């Protein structure tokens, strides 16, 4: 019994100590996920306009590594048009540029209310949104993302990714050396004497290798551009808004130009006369049917008369 009384408190203390250690690890922020991708969920950031939108994924620098960074943000702002203008201005100041901007207004409903006999008020419920794609200098990506916080009212999501392309650059350099070496060998062979047909095949090979060199050069330039300028996709929305516009009362306008009774009566008589003509012409189109009906009628009467006489 004494041993049991001693073991139970010791076991209880050991369990409590283990729970505290586990809680300490969780609070320390340890994560086993990929460090090159970071996102903010709605639960942690929505409605907080002061939250920094940048992260180490956007700002980490290593002279021995090259990264292609991309970011994708969706947020609600006070005024989409004003925020778009501000973002474009801030972007130009840091050397960035816009590659796509689609600003649209979606009309949700339209209603008209009469104010007096001559005027009415048109009420439109609408929302504005903008989908943007911008290029930001890599060194300024963190500052640009943080500058968006001043425009944000509600964050839907924010994703930032950094792709390490260091090995791709090494492979590109090796491939360039191989292509240049092969092209040089073909040039030497072309200068040597030989049959025209053989030389023509060599010339074709030289042209093909030169085309490969050109494509490789463009591919490398594109990769360097993606490293130097990060691509950021923004989707801006705002709360539904109402626009009120004074217009002419359409009912009074219709009444003003409504035709009189006698004019409409005259038109009705004319229309009825034309309808009768059309109906008569339509019946005349059926003249073979009328002849057949008359012959059938005469034949039936003759047959009935003959039956009575017999």
General description of the model:
This protein has helices at 2-27, 42-45, 56-59, 80-93, 141-147, 166-191, 196-228, 250-256, 261-284, 287-309, and strands at 37-40, 67-77, 97-114, 119-137, 152-164, 229-237, 241-248. The protein has 310 residues and is α+β, with helices and mostly antiparallel strands. Among the domains are: 30-166 and 228-247, no CATH class; 168-225. Strands 1, 2, 3, 4, 5, 6 and 7 form a 7-stranded mixed beta sheet that branches. Helix 6 packs antiparallel against helix 7. The chain is elongated and about 120 Å long.
What is the strand and helix layout of this fold?
Elements (H helix, E strand, L loop, with lengths): L1 H26 L9 E4 L1 H4 L10 H4 L7 E11 L2 H14 L3 E18 L4 E19 L3 H7 L4 E13 L1 H26 L4 H33 E9 L3 E8 L1 H7 L4 H24 L2 H23 L1
Helix pairs in contact: 6-7
Span between N and C termini?
136 Å
The count of strands amounts to: 7
Round the Cα radius of gyration to an integer and report it.
42 Å
Low-confidence sequence ranges = 1-15, 17-35, 40-46
* Cα shape: elongated
Content-based structural category? alpha+beta
Mean pLDDT: 75
Main β-sheet, in a few words?
A: 7 strands, mixed
Transmembrane segments: 279-300
Protein name: DUF4349 domain-containing protein
Domain DUF4349: 65-299
Keywords: Membrane, Transmembrane, Transmembrane helix
Which structural traits does this protein have?
single chain, 310 residues, alpha+beta, 10 helices, 7 strands, 54% helix, elongated, disordered N terminus, transmembrane, DUF4349, DUF4349 domain-containing protein, transmembrane helix
